[in-house]
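To the wet lab folks,

You asked to see what we're planning to order before we commit. Fair enough. Below is the target structure as tokens, and below that is the sequence we designed to fit it. If anything looks off to you, flag it before the synthesis order goes out.
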């Protein structure tokens, strides 16, 4: 244990009184104690030097690393590895140089106050700007959500989102300054929510109640086309469902959506698992802005969009595990650049509706193998006073896997 010079101590609002003797000993022995100003105030006077986190947080890491070998203590809220500083530190300091002593996380405390089974509850960290839309994915009638807020404004943003999604009747419980002398708990509905006197340190407990006109996001691929804002440049629902099946989204994998359009394929890729990532390439600024709005409204604000010519935009982009080419496959160099950037073992899917693109896919099939599938969809439409089948343009889909 003498080689474990860095201690990461989870601390609650009850300060030192809630810490174990081992945690208190580590604080007392430290030459340097790093934490938020609130954490540093909670532990009172110390032998070691106190230093608040720098901005951005990563800027503090070199200062800590310079003290390697001397006793250093980092204070974090609750469990340092649940939306906490522990993950940031582990990117540059090996875990075998650390002692980690967590306290109950804010989610554990919130679940205990609410009487909710934590394993059946969605837990979300909204403690960074722009993340409130992440809740959208989980708005299903009867669901329970615990969300860690960024600040006192987050509950108002959440209430506004719930109302806009047809979930204004949902119960919102504000659990503020949990575990300390300032702890307060108040409950209201999203429709009646008022932002008065909200502590910046808060967790929001949401018992979702959706009305009949709410639009919950299903977990199956192939969202209805009307859930996306588009100008007609969209991979239609049935074709999109087959395309997602061919792409085979998997945790931690990166997708390139080339010719992003409305963003429907990339958005559904991101909805498949919280660790998936996607970069959309689009040269039309109007479509890029539309795709960004769709990503926010459907709960995946982390969709990256590159507005640039293709394939020039690929130059410094991280190689993906999957590529979908929804447009531009016949433009000079695009197909070849995509295939070159694809990681070994990765999948590339191209959908063709024109004869020119079909010819390119026939060459790809001859040169690279893979599979070719023709997809044809017919929908019922009115024909005068009667009804008939209206065929959509057939789609030829090439699926290639790089060896």
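Sequence we intend to order:
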């Amino acid at each position: 244990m003498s080689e474990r010079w860095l201690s990461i101590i989870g601390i609650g609002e009850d300060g030192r009184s809630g810490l174990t003797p081992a945690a208190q000993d580590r604080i007392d022995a430290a030459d340097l104690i790093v934490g938020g100003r609130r954490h540093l105030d909670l532990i009172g006077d110390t032998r070691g030097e106190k230093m608040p986190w720098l901005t951005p947080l990563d800027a503090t890491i070199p200062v800590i690393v310079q003290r390697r070998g001397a006793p250093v203590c980092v204070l974090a809220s609750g469990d340092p590895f649940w939306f906490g500083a522990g993950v940031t530190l582990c990117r540059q300091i090996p875990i075998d140089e650390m002692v980690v002593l967590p306290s109950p996380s804010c989610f554990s405390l919130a679940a205990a106050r609410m009487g909710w089974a934590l394993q059946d509850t969605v837990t979300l960290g909204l403690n960074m700007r722009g993340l409130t839309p992440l809740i959208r994915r989980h708005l299903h009638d009867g669901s329970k959500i615990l969300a860690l807020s960024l600040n006192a404004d987050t509950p108002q943003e959440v209430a506004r989102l719930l109302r806009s999604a047809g979930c204004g009747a949902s119960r919102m419980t504000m659990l503020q300054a949990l575990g300390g002398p300032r702890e307060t708990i108040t409950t209201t509905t999203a429709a009646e929510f008022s932002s008065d006197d909200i502590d910046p340190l808060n967790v929001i407990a949401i018992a979702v109640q959706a009305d009949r006109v709410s639009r919950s996001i299903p977990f199956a691929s192939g969202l209805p086309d009307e859930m996306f804002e588009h100008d007609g440049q969209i991979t239609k629902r049935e074709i999109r469902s087959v395309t997602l099946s061919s792409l085979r989204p998997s945790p931690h994998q990166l997708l390139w959506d080339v010719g992003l359009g409305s963003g429907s394929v990339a958005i559904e890729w991101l909805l498949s698992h919280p660790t998936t990532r996607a970069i959309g390439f689009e040269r039309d600024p109007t479509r890029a802005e539309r795709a960004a709005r769709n990503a926010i409204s459907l709960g995946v604000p982390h969709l990256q969009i590159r507005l640039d010519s293709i394939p020039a935009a690929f130059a410094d982009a991280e190689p993906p595990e999957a590529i979908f080419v929804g447009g531009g496959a016949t433009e000079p160099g695009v197909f070849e650049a995509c295939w070159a950037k694809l990681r070994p073992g990765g999948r590339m899917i191209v959908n063709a509706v024109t004869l020119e693109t079909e010819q390119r896919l026939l060459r790809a099939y001859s040169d690279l193998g893979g599979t070719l599938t023709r997809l044809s969809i017919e929908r019922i439409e009115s024909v005068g006073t009667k009804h008939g089948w209206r065929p959509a343009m057939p789609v030829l889909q090439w699926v290639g896997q790089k060896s």
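Structural context that might help your review: The chain is about 25% helix and 25% strand. The chain has a mean pLDDT of 94.

Thanks,
Computational group
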